Each structure stands twice: as structure tokens, then as C-alpha cells.
Amino acid sequence: MTTVTFKIKVDDQVGADLRRDKQKRKKLNFLITNLLKTSAEPNPKERLLTAMDKLSDEAEKNGLTEEKLASLLDVA
Length: 76
Hints:
Structural class: mainly alpha
Helix content: 55-70%
Mean pLDDT: 75
Number of strands: 0
Low-confidence stretches: none
Shape: elongated
Number of helices: 3
């Protein structure tokens, strides 16, 4: 049996893009988790709307489109 090892070098820019996407995904997960926690607190309607506004604003600042969000959440 022969074993072949491939070494793949990632371009610095591609690596930076991957790290940035990972950070955005982490931030999005954090915001969604907070959104879910907020909806479970007293007066959930008002708090949920406030949290959704913050999430929407953050997404808009980061240039997050519906398609990008779907791909980050693996919703196709």
C-alpha cells in the first residue's frame, strides 16, 4: 500500500478571508444566542424586537446579505 501526502499552501489573503469569515460566524452565533436568551426574559416581545433591531444593524454594518446569512447558517 502506498501513502501519498499532499501539502496545500493557502494564500495569505485567502487565509485572512477565512479567519474573517470565522470571526463573523462566531459573532453571528453570539448575537443569535443572545437573541434567543432575550426572548425568554420577562416582556419578551419588546426585548425581542430590540435584539432583532441590533442584530439587523450589526448585519448591515458587516455587509451581510440574505444569501450570505443563509450560507453561514447552512440554510439553502
